[in-house]
Design a protein that fits this description.
- By secondary structure, this protein is an alpha/beta fold.
- It has 2 domains: 127 residues, Rossmann fold (3-Layer(aba) Sandwich), CATH 3.40.50; 96 residues, Arc Repressor Mutant, subunit A.
- It is built from 8 helices and 13 strands.
- The strands form 4 sheets. Strands 2-1-3-6-7 form a 5-stranded parallel sheet, sandwiched between helices.
- Strand 8 and strand 9 form a beta hairpin.
- Helix 2 packs parallel to helix 3 and helix 6 crosses helix 8.
- It is elongated and about 75 Å long.
- The chain binds calcium ion (CA).
- The site of calcium ion has 6 residues, from strand 4.
Length: 235
């Protein structure tokens, strides 16, 4: 459920927004001052904040600054002020949009939808950028199929990548060559044999390991197979 934090000191306006947003299917929290807004931002982790600029003696833009220290949650300013320069200042501070009072609920709804859509696209992009598997200095991104070690991109073939990612998904679990053929090569062994695995492990180690003869990441378990190690000492 999408969580919206409403920061508004005007009780009637806050109640109106609360009722409307709940009817739109949002989980709504309403607070009326800056300190509560900052606390709620970290405790409920809202997906979006509607922030009134005129909070009694407080200026919503100061509250915005504090929120930005904690979170990059999308913020829509509610502003009763007619000065365009003030609204532009708000956007420059990192607000995602603003709604001028008096507003229609349809307008609020449209703004929320558009800001959430943009934020959703950003989150999706971050997900693509984010490494899926991280082991200290080794990053294995299963979306882009890139592997970085100590900040350097490793040039792995697609099969070497699949082999590493498969092992790293189950750290410390030992896989036999036969199991690796089955899972990584998706072969019953008719076309490839176990020497194929040995050869790919050798090539992978030559790219991944500082000392391929004493591997830190992919170790050999004698008579059984290979496993991905979490720690350099194999513990
Ligand atoms: Ca107000």
């Amino acid at each position: 459920m999408t969580k919206i934090l409403v920061v508004e000191d005007d009780a009637a306006n806050a109640a109106l927004l609360n009722k409307f947003l709940v009817s739109e299917g949002f989980e709504v929290t309403v607070v009326s001052d800056g300190p509560s807004a900052v606390t709620a931002t970290s405790s409920i982790e809202p997906d979006l904040i509607l922030l009134d600029i005129g909070l009694g003696k407080e200026d919503g833009r100061d509250v915005m600054k504090e929120i930005r220290l904690l979170s990059d949650v999308p913020v829509i300013f509610l502003t009763g002020r007619g000065l365009e320069s003030e609204r532009i200042a708000g956007l420059k501070m990192g607000a995602d949009d603003y709604v001028v009072k008096p507003f229609s609920l349809a307008e609020v709804s449209a703004r929320i939808e558009s800001v959430l859509r943009r934020a959703g696209a950003n989150i999706a992009q971050r997900r693509i950028d984010a490494p899926t598997l991280r082991f200290g200095e080794l990053l294995i991104n299963e979306n882009t199929h890139e592997v970085h070690l100590g900040g350097q991109l490793l040039e792995l073939t697609s099969k070497e990548f699949s082999l590493l990612a498969f092992l790293a998904r189950s750290p410390r679990q030992v896989f036999s060559r036969e199991q690796l053929l089955e899972h990584v090569w998706e072969s019953s062994g008719e076309w490839q044999n176990e020497a194929t695995v040995t050869e790919h492990i050798r090539r992978l180690r030559s790219k991944l390991e500082t000392d391929p003869d004493h591997p830190r990441w992919i170790t050999t378990v004698r008579g059984v197979g290979y496993r991905f190690e979490l720690d350099a000492n194999g513990s």
